[in-house]
Design goal:
By secondary structure, the chain is α/β, with parallel strands linked by helices. It has helices spanning 10-17, 26-35, 41-51, 58-70, 83-94, 116-123, 144-156, 168-172, 176-189, 212-225, 243-260, 275-288, 306-319, and strands spanning 72-75, 108-111, 129-133, 161-165, 199-203, 229-231, 265-267, 301-303.
Length: 331
């Protein structure tokens, strides 16, 4: 299913254009990013912890579970991936619980570029998107022409969404314009001849960015460069998504929307394994950005094992019994 990049209203387009001066050159971009308010780490962590204590029960919990299922990017990103494994994952995404047709479909199946065509065929007209990691995932250590070719190949194969990784080395060494231009060019490589484009999710690998201030800066940098989504992690390092970092990114999206009128999505990825964890993130989204972001169009979970726990908790709510891990398929 082709995705059309949203056409911003005149007011939003005008407000975004008015910020063009902050990306005019490296000096202007540096001044803007370092002029952003510093992050109160204690306050951020306390806020994230407080939101994590919210109690969600019965009907609200059932709604939250189904919402979380519908927001999952069901993922397989292993060197041993095979067409058969990808087809099986697609089948699970379409019908997560074969015994219960009321379970929602997942949002997307996320695979390497060489598996995009296989996933596209297996998903058919299900409405589930195909997401593909590109730009030399997960390290991002490749020349820009290679990254652009990687992106174009995935889009040509049918990818609806591209998950790119930034050059963390360039960002940490202060070469902000290098990172900005790379995101901008990858965004351009997401375009199709028919005028549609794959949505671009920009992965920061926040576990390598060292400070909360850097997370705020890179969030603004990516959004200014045209990111449709900002994403925490690859899931391939020791520290992936955390509640404080995700809350900080949600706040950056809120502030960017207030300044420009442009809506950007958020995707925490890696380490989110339980229903309890997923609900904590949904509470953060609701409290920080509100109902407009509580859809798969604007919030995703990058996960592989989360779906199984959601299915088990869903079954417990409906039957009163906890079936255990043998109730669900092993991915």
């Amino acid at each position: 299913m082709p995705i059309t990049v949203p056409a911003y209203g005149k007011e939003a387009a005008g407000r975004l254009a008015s910020m063009a001066d902050v990306t005019a050159d490296d000096g202007a971009l540096r001044r803007f990013l370092h002029g952003l308010p510093g992050v109160d780490a204690v306050g951020l962590q306390a806020r994230a912890a407080t939101l994590g204590t919210r109690s969600i029960k019965t009907t609200a919990k059932a709604y939250a579970i189904d919402l979380a299922v519908s927001m999952i990017d069901l993922t397989t990103l292993e060197g041993a991936d095979t067409p058969g494994k990808v087809r099986a994952l697609c089948a699970k995404g379409i019908r997560p619980d074969p015994t219960d047709r009321t379970v929602p479909k997942v949002a997307a199946i996320c695979v390497y570029p060489d598996m995009v065509a296989t996933a596209k065929e297996a998903l058919g007209d299900s409405g589930i998107h195909v997401a593909s990691v590109a730009t030399a995932f997960p390290a991002g250590r490749a020349a820009l022409p290679v990254k652009l070719a990687d992106t174009r190949d995935a889009v040509a194969a049918g990818a609806d969404e591209i998950d790119m990784v930034i050059d963390r080395g360039a960002f940490l060494s202060g070469r902000y314009m290098t990172v900005f231009e790379e995101i901008k060019q990858v965004k351009e490589a997401c375009a199709r001849p028919d005028g549609t484009a794959a949505h671009l999710k920009v992965i920061f690998e926040t576990g390598e960015l060292e400070t909360y201030d850097n997370v705020r800066r890179v969030s603004w940098l990516a959004m200014l460069a045209g990111a449709d989504f900002i994403k925490t992690s690859t899931g391939k390092v020791a520290v992936n998504a955390t509640p404080p970092v995700t809350l900080l990114m949600l706040e950056a999206v809120r502030d960017f929307h207030a300044a420009t009128g442009v809506q950007v999505g958020v995707k925490p990825a890696g380490g989110i394994r339980t229903t309890k964890d997923a609900i904590k993130y949904l509470v953060m989204v609701n409290e920080t950005l509100g109902e407009p972001w509580l859809t798969a169009d604007w919030f995703r979970f990058g996960a592989s094992s989360l779906l199984n726990d959601l299915l088990m908790q869903r079954q417990k709510l409906s039957t009163g019994r906890y079936s255990g891990p043998d109730y669900v398929t092993v991915d």
